[in-house]
Amino acid sequence: MQDKINTIDEINLDEDTLKNKYLTFYTEHQLFGIPIADVVQIVGVQEITRVPEFPDYAKGVINLRGTIIPIIDVRLRLKKEEKQYDERTCIIVTSINGSYIGFIVDSVDEVAKISEANISNPPKMGSDYVSTYITGIAKLENKIVLLMNLKKMLNEKEIELITNLD
């Protein structure tokens, strides 16, 4: 019981150190960022078991140390061309509504501190859907980073579909 309390205290202490920190990653030569607090783990691509009637962008599931995790290919979700996975391809495991979901990205870049002063609101063009999951546009040195909320990349129905595997 003591261990659980210590873990909770450590998590609470870490929240301040996680503020304004983003994991940046590439998908089709575009740099994206997600709050580092949303990241549970980063793993290399491994064998993915296909699941019948999953949407095209949901590649299937992996078994990560006994936990079944549905896998979303970010390229396909963003309506980009599918690409062969290579040694740089990674799965970013996140927790959404209490369920683990993995997102396949072309490569992970870095953990970057981005101050709020360097973040602009996304333009109000394109579909309303895009403006729900693109939360901002950041300037990071000489790079532009599209900040995403992965929780909004899938709607509730899609999350329910891919996480209700029992």
UniProtKB/TrEMBL annotation:
This is Chemotaxis protein CheW. GO terms for biological process: chemotaxis; signal transduction. Residues 19-159 form the CheW-like domain. Pfam families: CheW (PF01584). It comes from bioreactor metagenome. GO terms for cellular component: cytosol.
